[in-house]
């Protein structure tokens, strides 16, 4: 997966299309977002259990959405706090924090009944 320089950027499973011209990114944002999306995509094959492909997070959400929000917030903070302390400054902790932040955004919008928009 790579970030296009002069083509439209289509977000999978969404109707979002980002069209050029793109701003002059200075900090590697497109590459970081591509890496995060690749990491998140891999988790769908790793974390689902059983024939119904249910994650623990799915169960939490079905029981109490507020607890799911706390779970996502805690895990995002945990991985940011752990960065640099376990296995050095590894990208995996940052990718996990990004993933939990995205999940937090999803569940906050779901709780308020809003569409998941920025």
- Radius of gyration, whole Å: 16 Å
Structural class: mainly alpha
User: Can you count the beta strands?
Assistant: 2
Percentage beta strand: under 5%
Integer tally of domains? 2
Main sheet: strand order: 1-2
Distance between the termini: 23 Å
Please give the count of helices.
4
- Would you identify the regions where 5 or more consecutive residues have pLDDT less than 50? none
Share of helix, binned: 55-70%
- Main pleated sheet: 2 strands, antiparallel
Q: What's the SSE pattern?
A: EEHHHH
Mean pLDDT: 80
**In one word, what is the shape?**
globular
Tell me the layout of helices and strands:
Layout: E1 9-10, E2 17-18, H1 29-46, H2 56-63, H3 65-82, H4 91-112
Antiparallel strand pairs: 1-2
Helix pairs in contact: 1-4, 2-3, 3-4
Q: Could you explain the architecture of this structure?
A:
The relative contact order is 0.10. A two-stranded antiparallel ribbon has the order 1-2. By secondary structure, it is mainly α. Helix 2 (56-63) crosses helix 3. The chain has 2 domains: 1-46, no CATH class; 50-118, no CATH class. Helix content is 56%, strand content 3%.
Q: In short, what is this structure?
A:
This protein has 118 residues and is mainly α. It is 56% helix and 3% strand. The two termini are 23 Å apart.
Annotation keywords:
two-stranded antiparallel ribbon, 2 domains, 2 strands, about 55% helix, mainly alpha, about 120 residues, 4 helices
């Amino acid at each position: 997966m790579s970030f296009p320089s002069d083509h439209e950027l289509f977000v999978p499973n969404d109707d979002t299309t980002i069209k050029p011209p793109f701003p002059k990114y200075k900090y590697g944002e497109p590459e970081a977002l591509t890496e995060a999306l690749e990491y998140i995509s891999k988790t769908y094959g790793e974390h689902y259990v059983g024939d119904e492909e249910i994650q623990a997070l799915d169960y939490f959400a079905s029981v109490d959405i507020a607890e799911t929000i706390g779970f996502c917030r805690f895990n995002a903070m945990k991985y940011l706090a752990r960065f640099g302390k376990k296995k050095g400054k590894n990208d995996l902790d940052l990718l996990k924090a990004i993933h939990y932040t995205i999940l937090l955004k999803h569940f906050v919008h779901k709780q308020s009944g809003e569409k998941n928009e920025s």
